[in-house]
Amino acid sequence: MSDCSFLELPDGRKLAYHLTEGELPGVIFMGGFKSDMTGTKAVALETYCTRHGHRFLRFDYTGHGQSSGTFEQGTIGAWKQDALDIIDQLGAEKNILIGSSMGAWLALLVALARPEKIAALVGIASAPDFTEKLVWEAFTPAQQKQLMKEGQVLIPDCYGEAPYPITRALIEDGRKHLLLDKDIPIHVPVRLIHGTKDNDVPWQISATLLERLATPDVRLQLIKDGGHRLSQPPHLFAVALMLKEFL
Predict the structure, then answer these.
(1) Quick one: three-class SS letters along 56-122?
(2) Is 0.85 topped by the overall pTM?
(3) What is the pLDDT of residues 122-162, one digit of tens each?
(4) For the chain: N or C, fewer Cβ within 10 A?
(5) 225 catalytically annotated
């Protein structure tokens, strides 16, 4: 994407982003693990917000897309800091966060850290705690041992791309940010959408999230036979309807 801008930070990080100005509240899209801001959902939702005159911001975490850094060095805490830097320096006074998969986990963490800047949350195939629940606990004892000894384990990619590393740092740092083992003191409206045939993140995680959130204004929409990506036109339309409630 040639028209992106970069947020240059004092520690040398350069975060790629694309901002379309418009009415408030602003909408910020937060992508998933190993994804970037040029994905179908990010671009489609930007088009929707632009058509309706609303501010929209999408960005790449460190080690993703066009941002600086390497994916292998990333952790939940580091990507959370990326998101906080983005919202602090480029966000509006009030923002609606749309998080996809891991992005929903990060959106929850941002909402807890900057509650005054958050108007609402939308979670698409939300994956809070995935490093523990869906990775570490799914590893065989041999994989767990390899991770602790060698520092990483290579995982086959579900979409036919090259295997990617799960690092010990990712797992250990993830444990500092777990949410589903306690009540989550988020009080803004939350909308969740999840496919019942999601083979990467079971829909029951969104159901647990619904129960843990403090806000009474939370709803979960299940898409029968929907997979993890939820990027087909009917799925995008459903997300747009959720977003429309808050614009």
Answers:
(1) EEEECCCCCCCCCCCHHHCCHHHHHHHHHHHHHHHCCCCEEEEEECHHHHHHHHHHHHCHHHEEEEE
(2) yes
(3) 999 999 999 999 999 999 999 999 999 999 999 887 666 77
(4) N
(5) no
